[in-house]
Amino acid sequence: GTPVVLARPTARDEAEFLAACAASAGLHHGLVVPPRTPAEWHGYLERAATEDGPWPRWLCRLVRAADTGTLVGAVNLNDIAWGG
Predict the structure, then answer these.
(1) Sorting pLDDT into bands at 50, 70 and 90, what band is 72?
(2) Among 39, 71, 75, 79, which is least packed, fewest CB within 10 Å?
(3) What secondary structure, in 3-state letters, does the chain show?
(4) Are 47 and 34 in contact (CB under 8 A)?
(5) Neighbours of 62 (CB within 10 A)
(6) What number of other Cβ atoms are within 10 A of residue 5's Cβ?
(7) How far apart (Å, rounded) are the C-alpha atoms in residues 38 and 32?
(8) What average pLDDT does the structure give for the chain?
(9) pTM value?
């Protein structure tokens, strides 16, 4: 397989991310609902920014090909529970 890197999403990723989500909508089969509009993308960025707090509930990463930087996916850890 191709090596990948994980990157925090930024405002610069909006167009590429939304285009990738539109192109892969048929693969989601209703299992996930990624951002589809600029407003939803900005909400995603706001949620991703909460990881800077002491007890983040979400971690959001874009998956990029290590050699080209091409967006190949995304991964999110949601509703993280801290403590016992």
Answers:
(1) very high
(2) 79
(3) CCCEEEECCCHHHHHHHHHHHHHCHHHHCCCCCCCCCHHHHHHHHHHHHHHHCCCCCCEEEEEEECCCCCEEEEEEECCCCCCC
(4) no
(5) 21
(6) 12
(7) 17
(8) 91
(9) 0.85
Determine the distance from the C-alpha atom of residue 28 to the mean position of all C-alpha atoms in its chain, rounded to a whole number. 14
Spatial contact of 2 and 65, defined as CB atoms under 8 Å apart: yes
pLDDT at 65: 96
Length of the chain measured in residues: 84
Angle of CA points 20, 48, 66, to nearest 5°: 50
Q: What is the pLDDT of residue 84?
A: 75
pLDDT at residue 28 is higher than 90: no
